[in-house]
Structure formats: C-alpha cells, structure tokens
Amino acid sequence: MNLKNNRILMVQLALQEDIRDGDLTADLIAEDSLSEATVVCREEAILAGQDWFDEVFKQVDSDVSVTWHYNDGDTVPADSIICSLSGLSRSLLTGERSALNFVQTLSATATQTNQYVKAIAGTHTRILDTRKTLPGMRLAQKYAVTCGGGKNHRVGLYDMILIKENHIMAAGSITQAITNARKLHPGVKIEVETENLAEFEEACAADADIIMLDDFDNETMRQAVNNNPKKIPLEASGNVDMDTILGIAQTGVDLISIGAITKHIKAIDLSMRFKS
Fold first, then answer.
1. On the chain, which terminus has fewer CB atoms closer than 10 Å, C or N?
2. Predicted local confidence at residue 276, as pLDDT
C-alpha cells in the first residue's frame, strides 16, 4: 500500500473511531453556522503531518478551507500559528481532534528525530528509524522521520532481510543464514545483526550487505570500522540516547538506528482556537 492510500485508510479509521454515529456535541451548533479558526503550536517543533490533517477535513467536509503557514520539515517557533481554517462550525469541531492527533504525533516523531540529527552534525553518520512504530502508523511515522532529517530503514518484514540472533540460532550460523537468504530471495538486501567481533568478521566474510553492531561499546565499534576491508555499511544499535549518540557517530559507523524516535515520543502541544 502506498503512502496516500495508507493515509486515506488511517483517516477513515480515526474518524470512525471518534465519530461513529455522529458528533453529538457539534449538533448543538446551528447547522449553517460558519467559523474561522487557527491552530497554534505551543512549543518549538519540526512540523509533520499536513496531508493527514488535510485528509481529515476532506473526509469530514471537503468545503473546509485549510491554509498552511509552515510546511512539513519546517522548524515552527513556539506559539506560532501553523494553519488557518474556515468553514461550517460543525465540521471544524468534528474534525478537530482527529486532525490534531495526527499532526501532534507526527511532529513529535519529526522533532525527536531532528534532535538526534543535530546531535551528530559534522559526522557522516545518518540516523535510521526502526520497526518500533505505533500500531497502524508505520508509514506515517517513517514519513515523519524524513521530515526530521532521518533516513528510513526497512518498512516491514517484506522488503528487506534482517538476520537477528534467533534467526542465526535456528539456521545454525551466520554464514548458513546468509546462504539460505541468497538462495530463497536473490536480489533482496541482507543485513546481519552481530554481537561481537567474531560474528562481525563472519558476516563480512559471508558478504552481508549491511552489518548491525548490536550493543558494541565504542572501542569495539572502532575496531569493526577499521577492520572492514569490503567497506560494508555498518549500523550501530542499542543503548543509544542523546548522551551517547555523538560518541557512537565518532567511531565512524555509517548508520545509527534508534527506536526512540518513533516509540518514545511526547506529543507536540497543539490547540485549535475559533476566532471570535
């Protein structure tokens, strides 16, 4: 499913969850009442989720007008108006929470990602997301990661092979797991998770496309970087936070994957206000 179709489905589900048989409180407003409103971002953030916001109002009432004052990927200063809306009062009220939910969550992902990107500025290392996303929001959060300056890892189990500890145990060895992968899925990129230098060397010898250095300390990571004659891209993972990330990047690894940018997020503080 492409991003657009996924977005339409996500919004349909969100509105079904919120509205069901109707917005009982909005019914208190006159049917022909018109209003204007603004959405204010109460804290500095990287904006993400415009298309999801727009899709909510498209599905609620396609006559609602939304004008954006910032674009996805922009840094929004605290207390800034990010967009203005006009249309039937009932429609604005009915779509408000679902629309804000998408933007506050996706902007949180973009903002968290951007903090990590800034922390390793000046190195060649790139920030990667993981599959540790909120249920149902995989494609949306991965889009938000790119808004924050990060890079997408595999989307799911279907588009890349990542051989982890349990796969290695079941297959018998790293070499055997890679051999099986090449035979069954030729042309598909193969990454191998390694937990020590011996496993790293085996993955190198077996020609993995990417090698994950899982929970390596910085000195061991440097050894792997310096003992990588085939220049296989190296991904650091595990124990990554704002205190450790620069040191990890300075070892020379190519990629750092961080589950926190999609699962340890705090929604950005947004509010919609009607104009009097």
1. C
2. 74
